[in-house]
Amino acid sequence: SAAARSAESLGAASLSELAPAARAAPHDAESRACRRACRCVRVASVRACVHRRALLRERQREYLPRAPRRRHSPVTMSTVAARVLLGHLEPGVRTVAFGMGGLLAAASVAVVAVTARSAATSKSARELRARTWTWWLLLSIFYVALLFDARGLAALLCMASVLALHEYIGLLGPAMAPALPLHIALVAASVGAYLTLALNYYKMYVVLLPLHFFLFVPWYVARFHYTTTTDTGGAGGGRSNRSQVIARCAAYHLAIMTTVQGLSHVVCMLNYNRPGGSSLLFDGAVGDGIGLVIYVLSVTELNDVAQFVTGKTFGTPEWRLWPNVSPNKSAQGVVGGVCCSALLSVLLTPLLAPTSLGQSKIESAVVGGLLGVAGFYGDLSVSALKRDLKIKDSGKLLPGHGGLLDRVDSLTYTAPLLWLYLCQFHDALHPSTYHMYATGDRTTAHSRREAFYVAFGVALLAFVLYVFTRNVRIARRMLLHVRLRAFAVLKQVILLTVVLKMGRWYATAYLCYFSFCMMKEYVASLQFRPKDRMLLLYAFVAVVLQQVLVHRGHLGVALSLIPSMLLLVLPVRMVVSGNIVHYLRTIATLHWGALLSGFAVSHFGMIGLYYDKYNIYSGPQMLMYLYAICTTIAHVLALLTAGDIQLLRRKSSTMVCVAVGIAVAAALHPLHLTPFTFVESLLVGAALGAAACGGELVTCVLKRELSVEPTDDDLDDVAASLAGAHVLDASNTFLWTAPAFFHYFYFMTPARRAFVFGVE
Predict the structure, then answer these.
(1) Is 496 helix (H, G, I), strand (E, B) or coil?
(2) Cα(440)–Cα(611) distance, rounded to whole angstroms?
(3) pLDDT of residue 560
């Protein structure tokens, strides 16, 4: 009212008329009254806004239902008894849990009756009794975990994975044992994988160990544990002292993929058909989650027991399968285990998984039989590893069984197989959990033209550097690296621009050819044996098929093809062939090479093709944005370090790459090639600079390990040398930056970007 009276006295109708008058005469009485009126109007408008918001909240409270307040019931004897009797679980789960205890009690009575007739000093009798008491210990621990619902099961499986990983690393021997920081990183990554599942971040889980940790381990080994000698002299002329970077990285990755990634699929079943807003850590299990976990554990372990019992009872030496891998495995034992698994699956699925596998008895029997076969091959794969390392047991943690890895070896095959089956045929992933992207506006043709302008600029820069090194006298090693890098970039930019302009199928064919050439160079450098031809065929097919799956938009299958499916197939093929000499080195290095040349390279297609297909943003222009930053950093590193590993290890090299990445990102921002804000573009440029420096370091170490580093002979004929070799020179920085760039969009949904950067 005071503001209104002041406004009426001055003849002003609104605040917009008061403010100019107050600025025109700042010292007279009328201007002071105008300023007071302005302040009063502002205060009144703010108070009115606050009042309206308060009224809106009150109306929302009236019409929206209130969430009931959780009341914790007091702890009494009845509640404790209900918890001890597993009253918080489903009736079918409770019945099977206590039924397993009764079955073990009957088996214990039979073991005591059988071994009582044997001599007290009999080795087999003592081993059988030790196995029985160990089963009682394991069942007791599992029962305690069930008292804490699904969270207890997840914690138990996490501890089992960490212990199995520790045993696996111990099998490698002191020469291959990782340093303490890397060992801590392995354990932290294992716990992180289970934590992502507990929080229902499935999109993070599927790439944490197969991709992010796969990129971290070689960088750490190359940065801190790779040493060179300087017997050849000159900058970067050192030679490796057999530090075995590829062997170490491949062995560590195989260890964590087998023991952690394989076993963690059991926890995936606790998230069966879980909505996106729910999590295992805060809400517990939903649906058939706990039932599926008990189902896969029961079928897998009883399959092992049935194979052991039927093999001991009915097995004959004439029917032994692969005696050089496992002398006690016979055809009778395998048939008995598979039949027992199928029968047990038919009996358990109506109680444990009524909404998924319990709908059809035929399906239950087939799935049970497949799990029996998978468990048999899982046992054989670990047995082949132990025979290759010339040891009998992985440890002494479980009396009568050996180590924990000996007990969960079958589970590393059955759990991934069952989870992939549920995802493909029973929609185990809720749509809100694994939703890829929201649709957005496609960029205009003007932005696409600017993307090709960037490609032309990158090619022009490479051509100028190539011509410059022909006419300027510089060090011969630097001349070699700069010319090779410039020619490789020039060729790649021209080919990439042409195939992107021609269409998606041509781009996919080019990526298939590029992955095939990289895998061929990797395999030729390691010199695999002629007996490994079928393994190489599977690896090459998986590398090419990876690019086709990305082209077809099957991202879920593409993210599990090489990390999970190929890892299950390669050991089986090698065991079936009967040739297990150098088992660990062959499987680990071949799978690691497939991840490098297939899985990492496929992120080019994910950026350039997948976004364009799902109408998010123009894939080619985003790919050119990444290409401009990475090629500029690659040229700068070639001029500064010339492939010298010692120079690449320095922090100054990383800081230079970060500065170059920020500068190029700031220069490309006005072209609107990406949906980044300016601050976001600078941060992405800095991250890509650091990743490019790490990729350059790892690639230089790999080329030296593979003996594919360019020599002085390549300086005379650069075109001929690059026509069929040195593929790593054309993709050194992209193998690390492309996954980081793609998964930034993969995790930064529009809502998260709006929250962090204020993007609408």
Answers:
(1) helix
(2) 10
(3) 86
288 within 8 A of 354, measured Cβ to Cβ: yes
Residue 474 pLDDT: 46
Contact 635, 482 (CB under 8 A): yes
- Compute the CA torsion angle 604, 608, 612, 617 (nearest 10 deg): 100
What does each C-alpha distance from 270 to 294, 407, 420 come to in angstroms?
A: 10, 21, 14
Q: SS3 for 708?
A: coil
Q: Which two tokens stand for residue 669?
A: 């921002």
Interatomic CA distance for residues 513 and 507, integer angstroms: 10
pLDDT of residue 124: 78
User: What is the per-residue DSSP string for 457-488?
Assistant: HHHHHHHHHHHHHHHS---HHHHHHHHHHHHH
Per the CB < 8 A criterion, the answer to whether 377 and 413 are in contact is yes
| Sole residue written with tokens 């490698």 | 172
Cβ atoms of 625 and 608 closer than 8 Å: no
Token pair in block for residue 5:
């009276």
The H or E element spanning position 239 is strand 239-240
Nearest one of 178, 248, 185, 382 to 702, comparing CA atoms: 248
- Site of tokens 């809106």: 56
At 165 the pLDDT is: 93
The tokens for 388 are 């290759």
- Using alpha carbons, select from 292, 267, 285, 430 the residue that is nearest to residue 357: 292
Distance from chain centroid for Cα 38: 59
Q: Is 723 exposed, middle or buried (0-12, 13-18, 19+ CB in 10 A)?
A: exposed
Contact predicate 329/311, CB 8 Å: yes
Task: Supply the pLDDT for residue 173.
Answer: 84
Q: By CB neighbour count within 10 A (0-12 exposed, 13-18 middle, 19+ buried), where does 84 fall?
A: exposed
Q: Which amino acid is at 313?
A: T
Check if the beta carbon of residue 665 is closer than 8 Å to that of residue 627: no
Closest CA to 630 of 468, 478, 496, 472: 496
Q: Are 413 and 572 in contact (CB under 8 A)?
A: no
Helix axis angle for 583-594 and 361-388, nearest 10°, is 120
pTM strictly above 0.90: no
Q: What is the DSSP string of 564-632?
A: IIIHHHHHHHHHHTT--TTHHHHHHHHHHHHIIIIITTHHHHIIIIIHHHTTSS-HHHHHHHHHHHHHH
The number of CA neighbours under 13 Å toward the Cβ of 225 is 20
| pLDDT value of position 443 | 38
Tokens of 200: 């229902």
State the 10-residue block means of pLDDT for the chain, 760 residues long.
Answer: 50 48 53 71 72 68 50 60 75 88 90 73 80 91 89 92 92 85 90 91 86 87 68 35 72 92 92 78 79 93 90 82 84 91 93 85 93 92 89 86 90 93 82 45 42 56 53 51 65 72 79 86 82 89 90 80 90 85 89 90 76 52 81 78 79 89 88 81 90 86 70 44 53 82 73 57
Structure tokens at 289: 């989650």
Structure tokens at 211: 């991709």
- 519 in helix, strand or coil? helix
pLDDT of 255 reads 92
CB 669 within 8 A of CB 213: no
Q: How many residues does the chain have?
A: 760
**How many other β-carbons are positioned within 10 Å of the β-carbon of residue 426?**
17
Cβ atoms of 152 and 424 closer than 8 Å: no
